Predict the structure.
Amino acid sequence: MKSYDAIVVGAGPAGIFAAHRLAESGWKVLLIDKGASLAERKCLSRGGLPCVKCKTCSIMCGWGGAGAFSDGKLTLSPNVGGRLGEYVGQERLQKYISQADDIYLAYGAPTKLYQPDPAFADEVRGRAVRAGLRYVPSPVRHMGSDRSVDVLKGLFENLSPKIDISLKDEVLDFETAKDGTHRVMAISGEYSCRFLVLAPGREGSAWFSELGRQKKLTSAINPVDIGVRVEVPFEAMKDLTDRLYEPKLHFTSETFEDAVRTFCVNPRGYVTTECVDGLVTVNGHSFRDRRSDTTNFALLVSNRFTEPFHDSIAYGRHVAKLANLLGGGVLLQRLGDLEAGRRSTPERINRNVFAPTLAEATPGDLSLVLPHRHLTSIVEMLKALDRLSPGIYSRDTLIYGVEVKFYSNTIKLSAELESEVPNLFAIGDGAGVTRGVIQASASGLVVADAILGKK
């Protein structure tokens, strides 16, 4: 067996940033991911063709993880993007967010920062309150999907001479010896290490949850985020997106008092698909040099399950499976059709004042897919958003479904993100710790510093 100081499983932002910091200290590191290199990550659906449900999704897996082809937004606030602050504290989290941001800047992220002046932030906060919403001020650095790839290329070129990187590989299992060292069994072979870092990403959340069950690790059930992707004319949100880029808005639904939030706002962006374990879900991107006439964003409803139900991932998969069953992939419905209680048809979509940017989406009826509770909460938030920014709640507003964010059940972790198994750490979205690129990156730095302090 080849021996390493540390093995990192997952080459998304969390895994890359952990490996980057360890490599800076001259550590012998192996980084494993089931996906391919950036150059090999090809997806037909990014070119407008239907998703063919590859066994390993090139949008979700590989160097850079799901963040590689995301909108490339770095939200530099400790108040959004995950639960990392619950472990390390808000002040320490802000320090790590700043460190992660500095690394992105060093590899070519744009220096421009979308940060509203205090007067405009106060204005938006007041408008949001009157609409029944809560505005969370968040500085945003926008890379765009294309520049994100350039930054990740730079990170790969810097790291590949310093560490071993095994792509198109997969960890099958691991065993921990009495002395705290780990034996890792992968498709490519067996390896040993003192420190093992699991950074599975959202695509690996089910794998991570199952691993926790097998190892009998104490776990807590994470919420599941289920919702839709909304598309409106660019002008409907222009006053917000021009100065904030991504307004973070939270809402408590009137009927069920569920938590609903905006996520991944893409001014002049494009609605896209992604595939998780054979299920096609919807997402959104924007680019540096390619612009549409629309803005899209997700509306996500969070539900936390209690006894006796434990599998929030299975619940999210079931909802996504219904959409795939009825539409062969992503379903699309005009808001006017949803209000009228009828399915959208190609003819009704063609009469819209703007065309959908995801042409492959199947016109249909989302009320046959989303639970009544979720759909009611989403419609109520759309009405609230319209009070904040008139034009959002329109008969021609397009709703794509479903968007599901899979986060695994969180295992018990220390303030340094170390598990009950000595020298075993868990980081990133797939471990249920974070919910976005910048906090995932920061979690990698947290664990790397913890490991460096142990040697």
In short: The chain has two domains: 2-114+142-220+407-454, 224-405. Residues 217 and 301 are 28 Å apart (CA to CA). The mean pLDDT is 92. DSSP finds twelve helices and 21 strands in the chain.
